[in-house]
Structure formats: C-alpha cells, structure tokens
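Tutorial, part two.
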Amino acid sequence: MDFDTQRRFDRALKRKQRRDPRAAAAVLEAMRRVLNDPENRGLNQHLLDRAERIWDVYVNDAARITFHETVTPSSSATTADTTSSTGGSGN
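Running the prediction step on this input gives:
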C-alpha cells in the first residue's frame, strides 16, 4: 500500500508541522501504521463507504486521516489516496 497525497493534505501537514510538531508526528505515525499493517486493530479506523473504499483513521481527538483505497490495475497491490486531514482549529 502506498499513499498518494493531495496537495491540500500536504499543505495542511506542513502547517501542522510548524504549529504543532508533536501532532504532525502523530499524523505521520498513523500513516506509517496504516502502510505497515492496514488491518491493525490498534488503528482507530472505520470504513466510511464500502463501495468507494473510503476509510477514516483517527489520529487523536483533534486530527483524522480520510483516504480512498484503490487497487492498481497492474497488480493486486493497494494504493491509498489520502484525501483529507482535519486538525482541530485549522492546524
């Protein structure tokens, strides 16, 4: 599984790194955990839309990662397109 992030996510993560480095590290750690073991029961994740394969992973009380899982046509590998991240008060 890979993450192809959207520009909006990248900008939000950079802002988060400037304002709250610990929270940004938590987001990156959650992404690493999803990549290494997507079925990890310790990840607080929920399938939001079964048909579209949209998942939501809670990082902490103020941040979550929402991503769309897609299957690459050339293999059975899975790619996750990160679509959004929220961070409380605009962080």
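Confidence is low (pLDDT under 50) at residues 75-79. In part three we will examine how such features are distributed along the chain.
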